[in-house]
Amino acid sequence: MGLFPFLVNDSGFIGSVMRFPQLTIGQQFEYQGKRYTKTGPMTATEESTGASTMIRRSAEVIVVVDVQVEPSTKQVKKSYNRRELLELCQEYKTKLHSQLRQMATDEGGLQLDPVLNVIDTTLDIS
Known about the structure:
The chain is an alpha+beta fold. The chain has 2 helices and 7 strands.
């Protein structure tokens, strides 16, 4: 691989070879036999696992051409607005209530009210 972009036919797609910093964020590429999406100046998310990885600035990567990018369910959103955060907290609170109620039923008498009171007080998001 050289410094100049050229076309390669590898892994069932055609793409050009370039240095990692030349990619735009969100662009898909292949590196060392794995497919990634660029997420930052030196980071990318592996498509198959959702794991974040540091990529060397000098790394030569193969750009994936004509691929529809769909967010992976394994990729985690890194920033949330206030409304989204409140919704996540409320969802967590609801799941916690449900699981504790199930535990109380399964164990035949968990002191549930004090536990739920602590949860409600701790996660008061109004």
